[in-house]
């Protein structure tokens, strides 16, 4: 098993997407990339802890590769906006890849270079790439939020369209029917 930590806006969105990806065995929403020790959701939301809302993924590389995990990451958030995803604004919503090993770092760099060279986005990719140092799991009510709170407005308006788009993305990556 391998792990990688990703932040691309509200962690509820990435959590909902990756829980449905074949080969992903665990998704933990949490906080990383900051300076405060063991921050709370309320503290992270102030933007003063330096943390990003992230998901730590554990996946089986025999089923889904690091490259496929990263391709989904770039398909499900906007990596060209600094400290923002849609209506969510603040450094806690920044685009960030916190790699767990050098192979992941190289794959992320390679993919970002390819996306830039192919002109996939109208603006430069601003995703931060850094090694994971500390990870703090979010409070229980933030884990698997979409499944537990499907009728909430944020889930219906923001997350549901991403989950609906997932099957197409998985098909493009050859992951439908896997696992």
- What order do the SSEs take from the amino end to the carboxyl end, as H and E? EHEHEHEEEHEEHH
Q: What is the CATH first-level class name?
A: Alpha Beta
Sheet with the most strands: spatial strand order: 7-6-1-3-2-8
Number of domains: 1
Strand content: 15-25%
**Corresponding CATH architecture:** 2-Layer Sandwich
The average pLDDT is: 94
The global form is globular
In the predicted model, the low-confidence regions spanning at least 5 consecutive residues are none
Compose a concise summary of this entry.
The protein is 35% helix and 22% strand. It is an alpha+beta fold and 179 residues long.
Report on this model:
- With 179 residues, this protein is α+β, with helices and mostly antiparallel strands.
- The chain has one domain (2-167): Peptide methionine sulphoxide reductase MsrA (Peptide Methionine Sulfoxide Reductase, Chain A), CATH 3.30.1060.
- Helix content is 35%, strand content 22%.
- It has six helices and eight strands.
- Strands 7-6-1-3-2-8 form a six-stranded mixed sheet, with helices on one face. It has a two-stranded antiparallel sheet with strand order 4-5.
- Strand 4 (84-85) and strand 5 form a beta hairpin.
- Helix 1 packs across helix 6 (153-172) and helix 3 (66-75) crosses helix 4.
- The longest helix has 20 residues, at 153-172.
- The model has no long low-confidence stretch (mean pLDDT 94).
């Amino acid at each position: 098993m391998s792990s990688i930590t990703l932040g691309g806006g509200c962690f509820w969105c990435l959590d909902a997407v990756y829980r449905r990806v074949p080969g992903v065995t665990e998704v933990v929403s949490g906080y990383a990339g900051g300076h405060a020790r063991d921050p709370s959701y309320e503290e992270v939301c102030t933007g003063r802890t330096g943390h990003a809302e992230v998901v730590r993924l554990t996946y089986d590389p025999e089923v889904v590769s690091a490259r496929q995990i990263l391709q989904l990451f770039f398909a499900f958030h906007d990596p060209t906006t600094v400290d923002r995803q849609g209506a969510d604004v603040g450094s806690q919503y920044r685009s960030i890849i916190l790699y767990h090993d050098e192979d992941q770092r190289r794959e992320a760099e390679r993919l970002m270079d390819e996306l830039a060279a192919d002109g996939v986005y109208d603006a430069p990719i601003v995703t931060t790439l850094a090694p994971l140092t500390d990870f703090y799991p979010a409070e229980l009510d933030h884990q698997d939020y979409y499944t537990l709170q499907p009728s909430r407005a944020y889930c219906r308006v923001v997350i549901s369209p991403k989950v609906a788009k997932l099957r197409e993305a998985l098909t493009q990556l050859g992951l439908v029917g896997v696992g």
